Amino acid sequence: MNNDILPFWQEIGTSTSIIARKVAEKINSKTSHTGTLDPMASGVVLILKGDEYFNKEKYIQNYKTYNFDILFGFSTDTHDALGLVEKSFNEDFEISEKKLNEIINSMIGKYHQQYPDFSSKKVGGKSLWEYKRLSLPVPDVFIDGEILEVKLGNLHKISYEIEIKNLIETIRTIKGNFRQQEIIKNYQSLKFPPHFFKINLEVRMSRGMYVRGLVRDISNKLDIPAIVINLIRTKDGDFSQNDCQLLNEFFKEELQQNPDFLNPEYRNL
Structurally, how many domains does the chain consist of? Predict the structure, then answer.
């Protein structure tokens, strides 16, 4: 076992960069990580220290596996639940499961993906999300990657009331500056269709690819608004949840003294 690789299980609401920084402070060593998870996501995060700190590029190349749901019925500016609604159906609608499966399976292979506007990709010294939040034109930036494998669940209907209630409850647990109150008010003020559709996917994909971007592209091809929900990174390379330390155990003393120890910091642009 390589002691310079520290796999952690990141829960919803914290920040990968903060985890790396807090681990560095605790062990008094430089650290890096192999890929950021969104605030609404959970899963495997690799923190590198010691000799492996200098091998970050090698581990970033790892293929990553994600399990998530696509929720059809509305879309947001972030392509997940932590965003403002841009398009929504307000009446009942239907989806052809056959056409949806064909579109999703067609994504397997080489994949030219545009970075989501709300992403950490830096251009000209700013992350794309900073351009968006500052109301500046967001540069179009693309990445070439590959989707190796997709496993599809069954498409099913779900009550919009149940799903919106669950999303709002989750958003209320998120700390930091992510427009939470504005987003919740946005959800509460809109008329949604009586039912949404939901399908579960497991996807193995190459470095730097965004599941939010994949769901955006599937939504556009189907011409039905959608977002990603319940996003979990189940594997980073060969590392899975069974290999991970829990943050509330590693930082037990720190969290007892300060329950907000791992919360994202407010950043006023």
Answer: 2
